[in-house]
Amino acid sequence: MAFPCLDAIESRSETLKAGARPRPSSGPEPSYTSGVTLTYQCHKPLELDWGGVLPEFNVAYESWGEMNAQKSNVILLHTGLSASSHAHSTPANPQPGWWERFIGPGAPLDTDKYHIICTNVIGGCYGSTGPGSVDPGNGEKYATRFPILTMQDMVRAQFRLLDGLGIDKLYASVGSSMGGMQSLAAGVLFPSRVGRVVSISGCGRSHPYSIAMRHTQRQVLMMDPHWNRGFYYDGIPPHAGMKLAREIATVTYRSGPEWEQRFGRRRADPGKPPALCPDFLIETYLDHAGEKWCLEYDPNSLLYVSKAMDLFDLGRENQLATQSRRAARGNGSQAGSLLHCSLTLPKTPYEEQPESRGDDAARIEPVSSRPPADLVLGLAPLRDTPALVMGVASDILFPAWQQREVAESLRLAGNRNVTHVELSEQMSLFGHDTFLLDLKHVGGNLRMFLT
Ligand SMILES: CC(=O)SCCNC(=O)CCNC(=O)[C@H](O)C(C)(C)COP(=O)(O)OP(=O)(O)OC[C@H]1O[C@@H](n2cnc3c(N)ncnc32)[C@H](O)[C@@H]1OP(=O)(O)O
């Protein structure tokens, strides 16, 4: 039997070994190229939530539209997991950006009215400091010596940029997916500096299914021998692991009903006998998505940024625990400095607690549709901030109940200016990627909220 899918991987390894960098021919995703960006260099250390420190760091950013004299029309646009700051084309980089149609004169992010800034997150690989950057402490690339990050760390770095640009208060903080997490985090961390919050297909805390899906992506990547515990920068990158990680990610980004319509049960070549390599159209589609992306993003950035998504929890308890870790470090206590991960699996199997299973008989309290009190308390800093929370019924990664949970928590926290929109399956079957594709509904609601 022929295995063209394995041949392709082996041949790419050979090409990479010879020093060349094969480029995917074209791609379905927006141009996540770094192109030409502006860079803000911060020389003041950034203390991170889990004990690490970046002694200095860069934030790559791009902007569109004029900033007014009062600097009161600035919108900070947060990206999804793997996007660069290139949300829209610029004179310096005319390639279309990942939100090209959403930004421009008369567009939902209207450049006739607003000055829009988009950054590459710290931990990323498109110009901001991340695991592929050089550690000023030893002159070598950080690799997996890079510290664990949180969404809040990324947001603090963005606000250092705003400080550097003399921007005191945002007109709005806008983001989708991971950007939707950051948008909320910005409002919680800096309530007096954020005029409005928009969170599209985001959440208030990561739920176990989404952590599970990111876990599997990280595991296939880390099991690629070329990953080499993160030290691959002088060798062959773990392109096979990245390809598989992207295939799993793509399963979470779209929806079954979309694929039913788009591919059904059709095979790429029904005239040939079944193959173990990609055969059904859905398989060749996933294979293509993985092929295109496997050299487009730094594998270590994927690990760090995706872990930061897992750690996301705006609940009050987590915020207090983080504050006390940071305070302990300020006092010089070791408790605040958890730099080295020594987590091992427990020796005895985990014993499930009856109440955690949700069995009717064991349930202590009746299930409530109210959001957890901890999240309501955690979102209290946003009580006076007008908020747009948008979700998509076909999204399996950030399911619509999570945006309902955020909207309801904000209302229970006392916010009387919450707009909640849920796009039904009749409106979009694009699942999580709806925010990239649906200009009419996503863009339309965004425009309405901002004006
Ligand atoms: C979690 C977070 O924080 S953010 C996550 C956000 N999501 C992502 O990052 C995923 C990004 N998604 C993309 O980049 C998508 O390509 C989008 C949204 C920009 C565009 O989606 P669509 O227009 O529907 O295109 P899609 O990517 O589904 O498919 C088009 C590509 O697949 C190819 N294709 C389609 N069907 C098949 C098939 N059966 N077999 C092989 N290839 C196929 C097309 O030829 C095309 O290839 P090309 O891009 O190389 O020309």
TrEMBL record:
Example of a GO biological process term: methionine biosynthetic process
Database matches in SUPFAM superfamilies: alpha/beta-Hydrolases
Entry annotated with the keyword Hydrolase: no
Ranges of residues in domain AB hydrolase-1: 73-410
Top-rank taxon, per record: Eukaryota
Family annotation (InterPro entries): AB_hydrolase_1, AB_hydrolase_fold, HAT_MetX-like
Transmembrane segments: none
Region (Disordered): 14-33
GO cellular component: mitochondrion
UniProt KW keywords: Transferase
GO terms of molecular function: homoserine O-acetyltransferase activity; serine O-acetyltransferase activity
Family assignment from sequence similarity: Belongs to the AB hydrolase superfamily. MetX family.
This protein's name: Homoserine O-acetyltransferase
Source species of the chain: Drechmeria coniospora
